[in-house]
Amino acid sequence: MKRNLERKPNAIWLGSALAVALLLLLTLASSASAQNGDVRSYTYTTFTEWLNKYRDAKPDFKPGDVLTAKDLSRMAPFVPPGYLEQLDFPEFKAQIIAPVSHRPRQDYMNCTEKYQNQVRVAADDALENYVCGQPFPNSSISESDPRSGIKVAWNFNWRWMHYGLSISDVVWVWDRFDGGSHTAPATVVAPPYWNVMAPLVVNIPMDMTPMFGGRGTFERTLQGPYKRVYYSHLAALGGGALDIPHAQDFEFKEFTGFYAPFDIRGTAFIIYRYADPHRSDDAWAYIPTLRRVRRISAEVKYDSLLGTDDTLDDFYGFAGRNLEWTWKFRGWKDVLVVMDSKWPESRFYGPKGIIPDDVWSVRRMAVIERTPKDPRNPYLPAVNFWDAENYDTFYELAWDHKGKLWKVWEFQKKWTESYEDPTYQAINKGVFTTNFQSAQVLDLQNNRGTAIPCMGAGYPLVIPSQAEKIMDINQLEQIHR
Predict the structure, then answer these.
(1) Residue 29 has pLDDT above 60, yes or no
(2) Higher pLDDT pick, 186 / 9
(3) Ranges assigned E (strand) in 165-274
(4) Comparing C-alpha atoms, which of 461, 460, 464, 459 is closest to residue 243?
(5) pLDDT given at position 297
(6) What is d(CA 480, CA 341) in angstroms, rounded to the nearest whole number?
(7) Which of 12, 285, 388, 437 is the most buried (most CB within 10 A)?
């Protein structure tokens, strides 16, 4: 009996020691896994440590240099963890170019100068006294000011986008990161009625082969047009609204449609964003199998869009409503991005077929953290990188409710004044903004992604009556033809 009493403390000590040793081994294994590039182990702490370490880093490379996979350590201070690891393949090359000024057009700047001093953030984070232009100067934004987060959010919300973005053909490619091979998607010619709903504004390429290099398995491809039209606070109209009834009641209306493949042809979504920031969006979907228009809820906007890794709320890096999130400004940061593509349409390569084969530049970005107030939202939290000069978006990272890095978005843009193709020039020349070229979503937890190149993108002038027809929910039943 005495021996048993003597041994019991030793057994307890041994069990505790084993538990501590096991915990230590697991911690070291997790740390080693992160250091070895297993992005599935990355947490929000991984990102915070990167941001704190490299907050004020300046590049040791310059325009004219060509960086390769051997230079990832030099790129690490300027590419978020989770995406940097995607560039580690032998063929990777990043030609560095000088940053180009992307100052918005003069009418937007005039609005900023005229009205910015009167804009305020209300106690509930709504925007007060806004007319047009950039709501808040960058000089008023700092980490020491708890209201800077919502200020940055409103600057992004009212960034310069002319009358809104129009895309003739958005191509949604389901990419499986299995090292397989693929053939480029085939361009689908829009059925005639779609040209009425969303007129082609640019002659899109009939052969997409040059766009899709590298590997990866393309499991499915969706195609269709997209259009967003801003109705009020238009800098091009001195802060006025479109010349149609009740235009001042809306911020924008948005149409997203699909005419390929055949099994989803006719599926379309329309969203109304109201000028009143407290009023929830109205959104509708036309479902061909039901042959009817249905109102959709907020949860649908959080869900995967027709099996892709994107959601309606992920458009532009963030397309939600500001008052539905808690915002925190995490500082200004130099970041390496594709903001001045050398191509009219994006080109990809790499072992997953989803990395931009393009030129890169270092841009100053606002780093913004957002946490959803709705517990049904799948992200917790998300971080965006928005350009300090025109507030366009270039990276987005989202964590799941377990605290693991889940998705990374990389966006590619092209300066509207740099197009050589006459059809692109016709709708972009003189707009002075960064045109949406593509978005790539990488689902790091499930080893897959969605490449979303946009063909025929630009910022055309708007005919109000035509815009109203496109955004009329009563027209949705016609597009199954």
Answers:
(1) no
(2) 186
(3) 166-176, 217-230, 250-257, 268-274
(4) 464
(5) 81
(6) 35
(7) 437
